[in-house]
Amino acid sequence: LCFAGDARVRGQTGVLSERRGSYPFIDSRLLNNTTLSGEIGTKKKVKRLLSFQRYFHASRLLRGIVPQASLYLLDEDYLGQARHMLSKVGMWDFDIFLFDRLTNGNSLVTLLCHLFNVHGLIHHFQLDMVTLHRFLVMVQEDYHSQNPYHNAVHAADVTQAMHCYLREPKLANFLTPLDIMLGLLAAAAHDVDHPGVNQPFLIKTNHHLASLYQNVSVLENHHWRSTIGMLRESRLLAHLPKEVTQDIERQLGSLILATDINRQNEFLIRLKSHLDNQDLRLEDAQDRHFMLQIALKCADICNPCRLWDLSKQWSERVCEEFYRQGDLEQKFKLEISPLCNQQKDTIPSIQIGFMTYIVEPLFERWAQFTGDTPLSENMLNHLRRNKAKWRSLLHKQHSSSRSNDHSGQVTGSQEQTLNEE
Fold first, then answer.
1. Among the options 119, 133, 144, 150, which is catalytic?
2. Is 17 inside a domain boundary?
3. Torsion over CA of 77, 79, 81 and 87, rounded to 10 degrees?
4. Is residue 39 part of a domain?
5. How many separate domains does the chain show?
6. Spatial contact of 92 and 157, defined as CB atoms under 8 Å apart
7. Angle CA(185)–CA(187)–CA(188) in degrees, nearest 5?
8. Rounded to an integer, what distance in angstroms lies between the CA atom of residue 96 and that of residue 156?
């Protein structure tokens, strides 16, 4: 499968080719070329196109791509503010957008280096700091900065949330250094090389990744394989016994694959069963791993549980990414995917549905597991307040729409209200 997928990519000579009885083939070059953020350099296009080959331990040097060092062009004032923020990295109101600006777009690298140090992982696993930094730069660079949502800032946000969850007493009392390292690494790399479109899009456009992973957890498999490739290429864990590195790679895969939203009910049913039967034994590595999966799932979709100003930014970003996919589907005469039609799917309606059917059930069970800690109560309170705000905005949209139907135009006061919101 792997080599067949590799050959298939090499065999594509055009951006778009018609096939009888199938949708047009749209590969990653098309996705990059049609983003609204402008043209990407040739080097980066090649890097994105071939990044899945990292699983085969392909050398960047042989591919003619030299990794760029991360530049910290910051004055002391900015560095001081970033350091001050890191001292409060365990607080739920941590502003990852501000932190990313203070670190000159290096929030993921800076955050992970700090957390590895805070949790004693560098000493415990005898990691080389230069090698760790090189690996983290590789991960950060493999996120697509042109994606409004699935980018390195999202990865940093998920990692910060994961750090908060790892400190919950019910979990923290049982975690080993390996559990903590796996949780942080999986959070940091869970969406690496995300193309900015979802799995159904990749399947209906006959993307090479969909064929490679046989239409099953396509993106999640790609994120995992890319992560393993970068771990091997960086040799971050090369000094550890082979059986240990193999176990780390396997567990990373299990964690990242758990973020597939199509498996949401599977994990919720299993969690509910454990909680109802009170049979979770966190002394058992298998049960700890399951709760790490749940923690990562929570971290991945925790945006509605953040402060309104942060939550609203994330909501707007994810919907912008949806709308871009919808525009792309419309351009190539494909059926527009659910939630991707900007004319029909409004941000408030998307967010209310997401909170109701995906976020609330998971976080209510998480709060049941943690025992209604201050963090869990805080998250649920934010979730309820944010949902109420989106309902209010949706109501105003409907009122404005009805008014437009009668008058044919938006009144000055309505326009001012919409602009203020």
1. 150
2. no
3. -150
4. no
5. 1
6. no
7. 65
8. 7
- Provide the annotated binding site: 150-154, 190-191, 300, 351
Question: Each residue's pLDDT tens digit in the chain (421 positions)?
Answer: 232 333 323 233 222 223 223 334 444 444 544 444 444 444 554 444 444 444 333 333 333 333 444 444 445 666 789 999 999 999 999 999 999 999 999 999 999 999 999 999 999 999 999 999 999 999 999 999 999 999 999 999 999 999 999 999 999 999 999 999 999 999 999 999 999 999 999 999 999 999 999 999 999 999 999 999 999 999 999 999 999 999 999 999 999 999 999 999 999 999 999 999 999 999 999 999 999 999 999 999 999 999 999 999 999 999 999 999 999 999 999 999 999 999 999 999 999 999 999 999 999 999 999 998 999 999 999 999 999 999 999 999 888 777 766 554 444 444 443 344 3
User: Cα 187–91–360 angle (5° rounding)?
Assistant: 65
**In a 10 Å sphere around its CB, with 0-12 CB exposed, 13-18 middle and 19+ buried, how is residue 251 labelled?**
buried
Q: What is the domain-level CATH number for residue 233?
A: 1.10.1300.10
Sign of CA dihedral 266, 370, 384, 387: negative
| Alpha-helical runs (H) found in 264-373 | 264-277, 285-300, 308-331, 347-354, 360-370
**Domain membership flag for residue 358:** yes
The DSSP secondary-structure symbol of 22 reads: S
List the binding residues for Zn(2+).
Answer: 154, 190-191, 300
Structure tokens at 90: 């365990």
C-beta atoms surrounding 41 within 10 Å: 8
Q: Contact 294/369 with Cβ under 8 angstroms? A: yes
Residue keyed to tokens 């039967």 = 277
Provide the residue type at 259 as one letter. Answer: T
Residue 25 DSSP SS3: strand
- Which structural domain, as residue segments, surrounds residue 94? 77-398
SS3 labels along 225-259: HHHHHHHHHHCCCCCCCHHHHHHHHHHHHHHHHCC
Angle (nearest 5°) at CA 157 between 323 and 393: 45
Residue 12 included in any domain: no
Annotation says 150 is catalytic = yes
Q: Does the model's pTM come out above 0.85?
A: no
